[in-house]
Design brief:
It is built from 27 helices and two strands. The protein is mainly alpha-helical and about 675 residues long. Strand 1 and strand 2 form a beta hairpin. Helix 2 runs parallel beside helix 4 and helix 5 runs antiparallel to helix 6. The longest helix has about 45 residues.
């Protein structure tokens, strides 16, 4: 009854985009209420569709329907379709993306209230952005998914550059919104090219990009395994770009030049989650080779650790959250990679031992997806809290804040709950999923390769750093001495901003308990069903045994230690918080002149590396292309045109206007042709 209208989920915000574009300026809030209605309508449809699917007879098998789009003829036809694909992952993604987007749009009424006519453009673009994410989620094939993937890329460019002037606040005042938008667009395009190449290989192997065709075990067994491996590595290249994984992670901090509501959309509800979703959606193909999943896990682990180090001494409240987003995305990719590695080993091993590995790996799928859900709630909360602070203090620099708790108690409390969740404080949502990711990484190290043991160590250290830098941010913002801007704070934000914070705070605390009510079954992947036929394997047993794992207590101690160190350093009144950033490490900071301190401030010199690549490689290639274009292509065209013009000039001299001259030319031509015909006839034996 409702599933057959799944296509309405992305269509509703698309219609709102069109309406706002044409009529938004004439409506209240310049289209804001229309955008809210579209997001809320999508959420309502997602609820109805999810309820029907999860309580229907088809569950847990996916429900898919499509119509033929076009056929590429050849020796074998390549069929491309349009349709929808509904399973547990689709339902969960639809629900949290539309719900959080609705709250962000409501929050925007207060946050973007001073933008005047520019609000029309803003609400139109965020509606199209939501269309891209929801369309990507419900797509029935990779081509349809790729189209919506690119829609989000376009919208991110437009929204990051919404304020197309120099961003005056924070550490990096040289960051220009337009430049940040171009950087995001170009860097993510590098990944998108890889993704497109991978889809071409998949299309060549399967003659279709429909999920139902690509995930069929018989079809997978029939294709060339080397080509499939190459295709999935290229597809993961798209994930690296879109989800800001190492080494294409550096665009995300600069994206903070856009409005905070856009940051919340990109980092919590849409865009960067698309890459994680792509790995989860393509899991039946990724798990065919353990080396692919090892590569996925390594990228995730390195990203989580590297991004966390960059947040340790950053003074910009939004950039701290940006680095934490990159780090948490690394956790998600690590969980999916570790679980997929175990499943891939189990497939190769076979037998009872292989089945045990596959069952353990299935928990990795749940861990990565579960952390994605929890992160969506607490990261949206954190960004919206930072927006509330910025709205009140008119700065992003935490050195100018401090002591805001007494002015903004709702924002302060909500951000504290979000910080506890992302830090992995026991019983908060982030604790459950983060520790499950760590457990799966340890299992992959014990049963697979030592590389995952190394990644587990990095992830544990990352958990400690996360607790430290998140509470460093909270203490610098809400506790201690009042900074310059905090003294001029106008108080708590309006209800349109604080009510969404309170709603998200509830989920930041309690979304982890959804696993007790069947979320582990909804977000489960059964490799046995996909590959050899059989029963259903859930990840809940790993979740319930979390407290029996001694390593869980290690991460709890480290998280509490990080919070405690942050309190000692920043929780008390201090006139010089910057010089205390690494006070516990003795002379580590050296007044900002230490090599490591500079490395963290410079983001490990990745921006410089990008610039060098752009100037040395990109500029050189551009000069070469310019030479070929001007000298070879244009030169050839110009030479042809010159020869035609020159030939015309020569022949024009023959045009004398005398009939006798023309008659002589005709007779000469006839004589020449006659001689040629005689010669040809003699050669051919005719005479």
């Amino acid at each position: 009854m409702f599933i057959e209208y799944t296509w309405l989920v992305p269509l509703l915000p698309m219609l709102c985009f069109i309406i706002i574009g044409f009529l938004g300026r004439k409506t209240p809030e310049k289209g804001g209420y229309i955008a809210i209605a579209g997001a809320a309508g999508s959420f309502l449809m997602a609820v109805l569709i999810s309820y029907e699917y999860l309580t229907g007879d088809a569950y847990p098998d996916p429900v898919s329907s499509s119509i033929q789009w076009f056929i590429i003829p050849g020796n074998e036809d390549y069929v491309l379709n349009l349709g929808y694909y509904v399973d547990g992952l689709t339902c969960v993604m639809m629900l949290f993306s539309s719900a959080i987007s609705t709250l962000i749009f409501i929050y925007s009424i207060g946050y973007m209230g001073d933008q005047g006519p520019r609000k029309t453009r803003y609400y139109a673009e965020v509606s199209l952005f939501l269309t891209g994410m929801l369309g990507l989620i419900v797509s029935s094939n990779f081509l349809e998914m790729f189209i919506f993937w690119e829609v989000m890329g376009l919208c991110s460019y437009l929204l990051i550059g919404f304020w197309s002037f120099r961003h005056p606040e924070g550490d990096d005042a040289s960051v220009n919104a337009a430049s940040a938008a171009k950087k995001a667009f170009l860097v993510t395009r590098m990944g998108d090219v890889c993704l497109m190449a991978g889809l071409f290989i998949l299309l060549g192997e399967f003659h279709s990009l429909d999920y139902t065709t690509l995930f069929d075990p018989d079809n997978i067994a029939a294709v060339n395994s080397d080509n499939l491996t190459l295709a999935m590595l290229l597809v993961f290249g798209g994930v690296i770009g879109k989800s800001a994984q190492f080494p294409l992670h550096d665009w995300l901090p600069d994206a903070m030049a856009g409005p905070t509501t856009v940051s919340s959309l990109i980092h919590a509800a849409t865009m960067v989650k698309a890459g994680v979703y792509l790995v989860a959606r393509g899991w039946p193909l990724f798990i065919q080779n353990p080396d692919v999943m090892l590569f996925v896990g390594i990228i995730g682990g390195i990203t989580a650790f590297l991004a966390a180090t960059m947040a340790l001494n950053n003074m910009n409240i939004k950039k701290v959250l940006a680095y934490s987003t990159i780090s948490q995305l690394g956790y998600m990719i690590l969980g999916l990679g570790a679980g997929g590695y175990l499943v891939a080993l189990g497939i190769q091993m076979g037998g009872e031992e292989g089945a045990v590995l596959m069952a353990a790996g299935t928990a990795g799928f749940f861990a990565g997806c579960f952390h994605m859900v929890n992160h969506a709630f607490f990261k949206a909360l954190l960004f919206m809290c930072s927006g509330s602070v910025i709205h009140a203090c008119h700065t992003e620099d935490m050195r100018l804040m401090g002591g805001l708790h007494k002015h903004m108690k709702i924002t302060s409390t909500a951000m504290l709950l979000g910080s506890l969740s992302i830090a992995g404080f026991p019983l908060f949502s982030g604790f459950w999923s983060k520790d499950l990711v760590l457990e799966i990484a340890m299992d992959a190290g014990n049963d697979g390769t030592v590389w995952f043991t190394v990644l587990w160590v990095l992830a544990v250290v990352t958990a400690f750093m996360t607790a430290f830098y998140m509470f460093r941010m909270w203490f610098m913002t809400f506790m201690g001495s009042e900074g310059h801007n905090a003294q001029h704070c106008h108080g708590e934000s309006p209800k349109s901003m604080t009510v969404p914070l309170m709603i998200l705070a509830v989920f930041a605390v309690g979304s982890g308990f959804l696993a007790l009510f069947g979320l582990d079954g909804i977000l489960s992947f059964d490799p046995i069903t996909y590959l050899v036929g059989g029963g259903h394997t859930e990840g809940f047993e790993y979740f319930s045994e979390l407290f029996t794992n001694p390593y869980t207590w290690l991460t709890i101690v480290l998280a509490l230690g990080g919070i405690g160190i942050a309190y000692v350093m920043y929780g008390k009144k201090s006139e010089d918080v910057e010089s205390k950033t690494f006070a516990l490490a003795g002379k580590f900071n050296k007044n900002g002149n230490a090599w490591l301190y500079k490395a963290l401030t410079k983001r490990w010199w990745f921006p410089d590396l990008y610039n060098q690549i752009s100037w040395k490689l990109g500029y050189g290639v551009a000069k070469g292309v310019n030479y070929v274009d001007r000298q070879v292509i244009d030169g050839t065209v110009n030479a042809l045109s010159s020869s035609v013009v020159g030939g015309g000039d020569v022949l024009s001299k023959v045009q004398t206007g005398h009939v006798q001259s023309y008659s002589s030319v005709v007779l000469l031509g006839i004589s020449v042709l006659s001689v040629l015909l005689l010669i040809i006839a003699m050669v051919m034996g005719g005479i």
